[in-house]
Design a protein that fits this description.
By secondary structure, this protein is mainly α. The protein contains 14 helices and no strands.
Length: 422
């Protein structure tokens, strides 16, 4: 029997409150989780001085995170659809606390690798569930709002992490311990928030199956362009996160962790702001403007180093950040639009693999090159290569405008997903 009108209204109001609380819990947990994974960025120079390792080791510590997170995404994402979001998120947050404590009490280089592995496992497990929870708590027909919030929390958290660690390391005692203890406190609050997620939310499947990366033939050309754009966007971001503090120290003769943290964090904070401000920008235009911004930002980074100009450096980072945000936003939409409705999971898995390869390969190549020619020339060389690659991919993006197959795929995807891709 249906409820009486007044009871129905009360239930609706209660459901809305629960949805709002669930969205806050999922958004906060995602933000704090991503902040923690990026705290080490301005501190690697201190670790290198304490434990005596090279730039190559820094890049490998960063790359191991990208290597671990991909299988974690593929395995834990489907698991959340069987046992529910909360049952995956809470153990992942406990793992994240373990990773933060490994960093806080690190007694050698091996501890840093172990901490990054644990962080990769926790983020890979929690991110699909938290992203899905944000979409599930969005108003009917407005799931795109949840996706936008997830994207903004992820990108913004990536920028806030280096800023927080740099500020604490520069102004407070215990610079290699306090940032992580603060993160443990934030994660503890995230655990309490995650407990408010409905226990059965996300239980959509009866049997667990790992996600298999798969791109159907009809979507391959369109997907390849989106994957290339995302690869470059995250290639630039990870180089900034891993190497910008050391590069700034060498170029500007300033070893302050605050300057290094601001340089690394500013890029992704700008990316988050631009994604939120230009959420309605058409897909191809977002990718076009994003690639142009990345190219200009990379060129400015090289020039700022040669001129020892802090102002030019920060301006270049802001431009590259805006480019990163637009490029990744457009690439994510295009990959989603390219996927037939019944094959989105496989396409999404392939897209994230391409994105994390962008996070791992260029930064590792920079580290290997730095061993031979030094950090500053290595970053300059890779920045120029990435800028040229951005221009090449920009030509590919522009070429899709008059491609009938691309246009048809977009129309099909738009009809299939009324809420729009985000």
């Amino acid at each position: 029997m249906p409820n009486p009108p007044m009871a129905g209204e009360a239930t609706g109001e209660t459901g809305t409150r629960h949805a709002t609380r669930g969205a806050f819990a999922a958004g906060y947990a995602l933000l704090v989780l991503i902040i923690g994974t990026n705290l080490p960025s301005p501190l690697y120079g201190m670790y290198a001085a304490r434990f005596g390792f090279s730039t190559l080791t820094v890049t490998l510590i960063v790359a191991v995170y990208a290597a671990v997170i991909v299988p974690s995404l593929l395995l834990a994402g489907p698991l959340a659809d069987v046992i529910g979001y909360r049952q995956v998120v809470m153990p992942a947050l406990v793992l994240a606390i373990g990773g933060a404590l490994l960093f806080a009490f690190a007694a050698g280089t091996g501890w840093l690798f172990a901490a990054r592995v644990v962080q990769g496992l926790s983020v890979g497990a929690a991110t699909p569930a938290l992203t899905a929870a944000l979409a599930a708590t969005a108003p009917p027909g407005r799931q795109g709002r949840g996706s936008l919030l997830a994207s903004t929390m992820t990108t913004g958290g990536s920028g806030l992490g280096p800023l927080l660690a740099g500020a604490l390391a520069a102004s407070a005692p215990l610079p290699l311990r306090l940032p992580y203890l603060a993160e443990v406190a934030l994660l503890g609050a995230a655990l309490l928030a995650a407990w408010r997620l409905p226990g059965r939310q996300g239980q959509l499947a009866k049997r667990w199956r790992p996600t298999v990366p798969r791109v159907p033939r009809v979507a391959r050309r369109r997907f390849a362009v989106a994957a290339a754009v995302s690869f470059l966007a995250w290639g630039v971001a990870y180089i900034m996160l891993a190497l910008a503090p050391s590069y700034v120290s060498a170029r500007l003769h300033d070893s302050s962790p605050l300057i290094g943290g601001a340089t690394a964090g500013l890029l992704l904070i700008c990316a988050a702001v631009i994604q939120f401000a230009f959420a309605r920008l058409p897909t191809r235009r977002a990718q076009t403007l994003g690639l142009v911004g990345l190219t200009i930002g990379l060129g400015g980074l090289v020039c700022a180093g040669r001129l020892s100009s802090v102002a030019l450096l920060l301006a270049s980072v802001c431009i590259a950040g805006a480019g990163q945000g637009l490029a990744f936003m457009g690439a994510t939409r295009q990959a989603s639009q390219a996927a037939p409705p019944d094959q989105r999971a496989g396409v999404a898995a392939a897209f994230w693999i391409a994105s994390y390869l962008g996070g791992g390969l260029p930064v590792t190549a920079t580290g290997l090159l730095a061993v031979r020619i030094g950090l500053v020339p290595a970053v300059d060389t890779v920045a120029i290569i990435l800028a040229v690659a951005c221009l090449a991919v920009l030509a590919a993006v522009r070429a899709t405008i008059h491609d009938p197959e691309m246009t048809a795929a977009t129309a099909t995807a738009t009809v299939a997903r009324p809420g729009g891709a985000c």
